[in-house]
Amino acid sequence: MKQDVVTSVERSGRHSMLVTINEEIQLMLSRDIWAERPLSEGEELDFAEFSQWLLPRQYPEALNKAVALLAQRARSGGEIRQKLERAHYLEDTIDMVLYKLEKERLLDDEAFARDYAASCARRQMGRTRIRMELVRKGLNRDIIDRTMEELPQEEADEAAIHLAAKLLRRHKGDDVRKEMQKVLAAMARRGYSYEDSKEAIEAAIRLQEEEQE
Fold first, then answer.
1. pLDDT per residue over 79-93, tens digit each?
2. CA-based max dimension of the chain
3. d(Cα 17, Cα 27) in Å, to the nearest integer?
4. From residue 129, how far is each of 45, 137, 148 by CA, in Å?
5. How many CB atoms lie under 10 A from the CB of residue 7?
6. Whole-model pTM?
7. How far is the C-alpha of 122 from the C-alpha of 82, rounded, in Å?
8. Each residue of 54-67: pLDDT tens digit?
């Protein structure tokens, strides 16, 4: 039976070792785990057996790291997974951590998506940009679709109008056509569609006219 091989061992920081197996699988081993079972470059091992040995030892470390991340700010399950993957934990370890967090109700992607999307809308981001941000947070498509459908339209419209008014003031004095082009381009960069931008600009202009009466 073909054995797996430790192809490199490197120190990573003061308390960890980065081990590469078969030139592709990377694992970060803490000082305590390394002390219990050190590995050397060129050493043969059964990766399946090693993973079973490692899983219960690295799970508490990964869970503590995930809880610390959540203590900093709310995060999606996808964000936690990405952080743990970058820290080179086993896939099974990451799955166990996420299951535990969800079971303890420390993770709720539905609630996170709703709150984050509403926050983006208040920060004057359009629907296209908000969807991109939710994708970047590692949320699945079903949750994103439901979140976008439930996004409070009135609040989003008010934010768009406020942004349009601010941009109109910034470009006041320009040629009217150029002014509109600049405002539309700025709103497009924020993720607003042409139609949403046009409606917001028209509403902002009406409000400005009412204030001047």
1. 999 999 999 999 999
2. 87
3. 8
4. 47, 12, 11
5. 15
6. 0.75
7. 26
8. 999 999 999 999 99
